[in-house]
User: Fold these one by one.
Assistant:
Number 1:
Amino acid sequence: MSDIQSQIQQNLDTVRAKISKQASLFDRASEDIHLVAVSKKQPLERVQAMLACGQRLFGENRVQEAHERWADFRGEYTDLTLHLIGPLQTNKVKEAVALFDVIETVDRPKLAKALAAEMKKQDKNLPCYVQVNTGEEEQKAGVLPHELEALLEVCKNEGLVITGLMCIPPQDEPAALHFAFLQKLAQEQGLQNLSMGMSGDFEKAIPLGATHVRVGTALFGERAPQ
Ligand SMILES: *Cc1c(COP(=O)(O)O)cnc(C)c1O
């Protein structure tokens, strides 16, 4: 086994063990907590090593970068699942619908409409999540909490299937508060999936109902600089 391969395997084992431990501590089934390996800006060899370890669920935050990387792997690994976890521009909707299995970042009516129309064209019905800007941060994507219900109504009318919520808590606030808030919103709206928790805080998201944790650096190591 190469050095990279054994390092990635070790990281994966460590993260999975933490997920299992939290699941059992908080009386959850570990199968209900899906590990989304965030491969953005990671060197190809690390992604290949992760695939060799058997990981099949990945997250990317940019459509173009994801396309360059995953279009070929799609042919090679038929059981891949790809989540879009970054902001989506309407001019990239066509490519996003063609490539991804789940869009986690629906956050405005215009995007919901564009996605619904494109899915009809491509004869697809991808499950989507709504990204909620739980910290109401100006620079951050996501719908404001008080606008969530109206957005869900638009999605419903357009035929866009929303199965969950996603959030990225503010850096300088306790993540658990935001996870608890997102959980409450999902319960109110009857939504099943909760995408929350990253390398630094995924263990805190598990007691609060995370079904998908999005982990990058703890699995792959540091990303290439911007
Ligand atoms: C980059 C990214 C992650 C992963 O972050 P790490 O801290 O490396 O685990 C998770 N979610 C989103 C939306 C991201 O952009």
Number 2:
Amino acid sequence: MFDLKSITRKNILALKPYTSAREDFKGEADIWLDANESPFQSEVNRYPDPYQQEVKALISPIKGIPRENIFLGNGSDEVIDLLFRAFCEPNRDKALLLPPTYGMYKVSAEINAVALESVPLTADFQIDIPKIKPLLRDKCLKLIFICSPNNPSGNLIKREAIREIVENFHGIVVVDEAYIDFASEGSMLGEIRNIPNLLIIQTFSKAWGMAGIRLGMAFGSQEILDILNKIKPPYNINTLSQNLAIEKLKQIEQKNREVAKILEQRKKLNDQLQTLNQVVKVWPSNTNFLLVQFTDPKKVYKKLSAIGTIVRDRSHEVADCLRITIGTVEENQRLINQLKAIENEESTLYR
Ligand SMILES: *Cc1c(COP(=O)(O)O)cnc(C)c1O
């Protein structure tokens, strides 16, 4: 059912990509006079590896995915943008979103003049399969974005539902696993081998603690990744980001310890929030944040920000909810103290 060529934009299929100096010649050499770089050595005087082979070689055993099935983007946001540019003809093709979900899919679609279909998640934030099924036959529908664990609801999407969509769709299903390291259930990475129209995206911005280096990962068939590689800016991941990622990947223990701490804090914060009168509900979380329903979220948001604590107001997406990232032990404790003070209308005491 899935035929990549038939869903790829014609101009992209026909494109002859830019070839960088480093691709033209691949062997060993001492004198590099091919790229108009400065000859004066520093960490950054040479152009970076356009395919980030060293970074991918370290990611590969961690994820159990061969190098050729890994693509790196300047943040997941670049991967999302490249997908629209590769597969969606502006002002003709469409993508499907399942709100409430990550805001960047919509922004990226709008930048690329791609129309959106939208099928809200059910009351327990799962996929509404009967509503989606009829849309899957639309030849102009090219991409479906499924965020699991979902931002901002924090839950995992049921795997059988994702499989059902993938199997009945001629386009690409993107499963965004930005928060997968915080989840109780494993990733769908193992399935990319068997499912040609599944693309999984992950990121260094959350569990890896490296939002500042802008590094996103995509895992999928070599066929799909060839197209992304063809259209990406040649040097999309800069040398400094590659070097920092390499260092970090060699210290996976540190990441694992930090994730464990966040999970412990998530449980504690959850328990403490449940005791507050102004908290209606804390949604179960498989992420590094909690979605919390308040009796008066606007008031809580305003009072917290007035004393220098910023949370995310999601009340326009999920009624009466604020999204709270898990911080350090101290930050979480201060947040709880501040919320208690707000309950007692003494917020100014807790700066
Ligand atoms: C934070 C987040 C990302 C990360 O995006 P980057 O561009 O890699 O920083 C991706 N998807 C979701 C759902 C997120 O919440």
